[in-house]
């Protein structure tokens, strides 16, 4: 013991130390003294520690070896981190210092005494282990993302990256591991067509540490990357920048493919109806600017069905390709020939009056009058032609095509193989529309409208996962009135808003009725452009849902592409508000309008519906097949559900499933039915309730 200090003062001094301290007899390896900190560290009292063999407190083989060497006099001291055993059995990490007390004349036993001090590192070790686990999780997350991630400091120096980043840019791994910032940035500049512009854009980002940005980068190999840049924050200040890179090549290729397919007839290579619509709009603009006109010829092949039935569709396709070429040869370069459907063509003749249209019609009849020769077979195919003039017979493609088709039908009725101009009956048509509009308003007041529901099925499982609500009208005088007849008149008069509101209310009421019976059946409702544009539309949807008590995920709103593109910013605000309500949003008749990945990425859309016009020709029609596959590819790229309507055959259903679509509806399973018939068809009298419901849970 220290000679100058009495035992009490020595004890007090030892206990005042914050570190755990004890004296160990090197010969017997027993504890001679232990302060209060040592007792608290190990959970042992002084009586339990003093006289205790030091090996009983050791945990690691290294510690046992150390004290064995101390006993043998072969060790001078140690400073290390090690494990100790607590009285309750758990181990704890400590920072340990052990040294031998020197011997002198006053303390001849000093060389046999060792002083040991320890500091508890358990909390520090746990924090380090938690940080290490967090870093492992972060690295795992970084590597599992589909995007390439690059993290830099404020000066643009590399701090972190994932393997996807290296793969997207084709950067060698050794170059990244060297953390040579200049070499990596030089590689990226060399990977783009305009390295100077790329470097300038990057410098602008680094000069504005708070800036958030998104742009598109074209690589030399043709791929397109989307780059999103966000500031990285720490303790409420920017400390760097996070770049994410996503390969858009497949999405853009799918979009371009859809664009091509949606404007081209695959059999003949001619423009299709959608392309013709754009060219009619262009012709309208020129005609109005120059106070001129143009003509549309509707060409229908006579008795073409006999060729298909007798010689087969493959032979018929050869005939159609030859017809397409003959029609091209009849026109000037500025004119357009388009294929509308199976054996129907439309000719757009710029700056043509009645005389010019007649001249073209005679050229077509002359060209079609020449014999067709395939293999050893020669035959003649005649055509019936209807002519409509802008603007007297219509201003839009639909109006002009309808007028020209009626004129063509007159040729058919008169014996075929000729042409005829459309004879306007505008006064009669206007009066008929007025009467129909009045009858519609009476039908709503007198509750003559009703809803039918067409089942929607999962292609993989065959289970019913939803229903589309479709309006029906039984008029006492007119009989069953087709929606295709009265909906356009309702849209023209504005009465479609009242009809749409009624449909929404009735569909939600029916969905609630099923839900209260334990049947979660999502119901899809079509929304017209005028209805969607109403200032209170979102509030109306909210009110109907709340009043009925329907879970919002059981309501789906189907909107056409034209609605969303009319005022994209306002449409985005309304769609986001509807999405916040929890309703499902889908694009109806996808591909018939102005299909664009741009709005699909912006809008909170969950489903794409393939129009029946693309399904009818499946699986034989190459154009329809290509469009369906492309839409399915877009759906996969954007994680959207894809449903096809108008499915009438097992061959169509099988093709849709193989193409990657998710759902379908059509006469193959069931037409639209009233609620009672729907329940009988879907659930039956004794069948269990279907539980696999899209987006609704159990």
Describe this structure in words.
The structure is a single chain. α10 packs antiparallel against α24. The protein contains 26 helices and 26 strands. The radius of gyration is 41 Å and the shape is elongated. The strands form 5 sheets. Strands 18-19-21-22-23-24-25-26 form an 8-stranded mixed β-barrel, surrounded by 6 helices. Strands 2-1-5-4-3 form a 5-stranded antiparallel sheet. The protein is of the alpha+beta class. The longest helix has 23 residues, at 122-144.
Describe this protein with a few key phrases:
single chain; 698 residues; alpha+beta; Beta-Lactamase; Alpha-Beta Plaits; 4 domains; eight-stranded mixed barrel; five-stranded antiparallel sheet; 26 helices; 26 strands; 24% strand; elongated; disordered C terminus
**Largest sheet features:** 8 strands, mixed, barrel
Helix content: 40-55%
Mean pLDDT: 86
Please tell me what the overall shape is: elongated
Domain tally = 4
Distance between the termini: 77 Å
Strand content: 15-25%
Q: Which architecture of the largest domain per CATH?
A: Alpha-Beta Barrel
């Amino acid at each position: 013991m220290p000679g100058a200090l009495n035992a009490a003062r020595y004890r007090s001094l030892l206990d005042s130390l914050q570190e755990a301290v004890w004296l160990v007899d090197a010969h017997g390896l027993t504890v001679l003294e232990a302060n209060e900190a040592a007792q608290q560290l190990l959970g042992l009292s002084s009586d339990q520690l003093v006289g205790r063999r030091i090996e009983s407190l050791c945990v690691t083989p290294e510690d046992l070896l150390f004290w064995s060497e101390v006993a043998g006099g072969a060790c001078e001291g140690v400073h290390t981190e090690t494990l100790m055993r607590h009285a309750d059995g758990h181990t704890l990490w400590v920072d340990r210092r052990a040294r031998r007390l020197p011997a002198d004349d006053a303390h001849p036993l000093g060389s046999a005494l060792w002083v040991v001090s320890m500091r508890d590192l358990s909390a520090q070790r746990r924090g380090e282990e938690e940080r290490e686990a967090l870093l492992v999780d972060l690295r795992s997350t970084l590597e599992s993302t589909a995007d390439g991630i690059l993290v830099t400091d404020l000066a643009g120096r590399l701090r972190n990256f994932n393997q996807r980043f290296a793969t997207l840019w084709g950067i060698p791994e050794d170059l990244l591991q060297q953390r040579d910032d200049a070499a990596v940035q030089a590689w990226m500049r060399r990977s783009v067509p305009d390295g100077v512009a790329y470097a300038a854009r990057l410098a602008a980002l680094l000069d504005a540490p708070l800036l958030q940005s998104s742009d598109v980068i074209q690589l030399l190999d043709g791929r397109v990357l989307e780059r999103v840049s966000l500031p990285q924050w720490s303790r409420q200040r920017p400390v760097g920048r996070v770049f994410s890179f996503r390969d858009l090549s497949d999405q853009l290729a799918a979009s371009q493919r859809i664009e091509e397919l949606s404007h081209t007839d695959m059999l003949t290579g001619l423009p299709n109806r959608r392309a013709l619509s754009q060219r009619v709009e262009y012709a309208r603009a020129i005609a109005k600017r120059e106070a001129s006109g143009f003509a549309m010829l509707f060409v229908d092949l006579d008795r073409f069905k006999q060729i298909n039935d007798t010689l087969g569709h493959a032979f018929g396709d050869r005939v159609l390709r030859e017809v397409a070429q003959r029609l091209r040869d009849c026109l000037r370069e500025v004119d357009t020939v388009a294929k509308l459907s199976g054996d129907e063509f439309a000719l757009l003749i710029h700056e043509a009056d009645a005389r010019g249209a007649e001249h073209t019609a005679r050229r077509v009849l002359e060209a079609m009058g020449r014999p067709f020769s395939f293999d050893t077979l020669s035959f003649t195919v005649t055509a019936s032609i209807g002519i409509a003039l802008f603007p007297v017979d219509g201003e839009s493609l639909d109006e002009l095509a309808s007028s020209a088709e009626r004129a063509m039908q007159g040729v058919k009725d008169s014996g075929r193989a000729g042409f005829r101009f459309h004879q306007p009956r505008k006064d009669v048509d206007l009066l008929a529309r007025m009467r129909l509009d009045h009858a519609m308003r009476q039908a709503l007041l007198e509750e003559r409208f009703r809803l039918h529901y067409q089942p929607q099925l999962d292609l993989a499982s065959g289970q019913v996962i939803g229903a589309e609500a479709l309006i029906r009208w039984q008029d006492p005088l007119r009989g069953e009135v087709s929606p295709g007849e009265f909906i356009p008149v309702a849209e023209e008069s504005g009465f479609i808003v009242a009809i749409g509101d009624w449909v929404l209310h009735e569909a939600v009421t029916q969905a609630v009725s099923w839900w209260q019976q334990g049947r979660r059946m999502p119901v899809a409702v079509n929304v017209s452009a005028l209805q969607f544009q109403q200032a209170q539309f979102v509030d109306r949807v909210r009110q109907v849902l709340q009043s009925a008590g329907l879970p919002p995920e059981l309501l789906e709103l189907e909107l056409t592409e034209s609605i969303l593109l009319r005022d994209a910013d306002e449409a985005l605000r309304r769609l986001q508000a509807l999405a916040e309500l929890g309703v499902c949003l889908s694009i109806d008749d996808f591909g018939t309008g102005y299909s664009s990945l741009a709005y699909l990425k912006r809008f909170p859309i969950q489903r794409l519906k393939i129009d029946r016009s693309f399904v009818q020709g499946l699986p034989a029609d190459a154009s329809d097949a290509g469009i369906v596959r492309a839409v399915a590819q877009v759906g996969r790229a954007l994680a959207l559900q894809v449903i096809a309507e108008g499915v009438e055959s097992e061959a169509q259903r099988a093709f849709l499933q193989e193409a990657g679509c998710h759902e379908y509806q059509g006469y193959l399973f069931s037409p639209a039915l009233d609620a009672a018939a729907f329940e009988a068809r879907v659930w039956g009298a004794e069948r269990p309730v279907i539980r696999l419901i899209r987006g609704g849970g159990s």
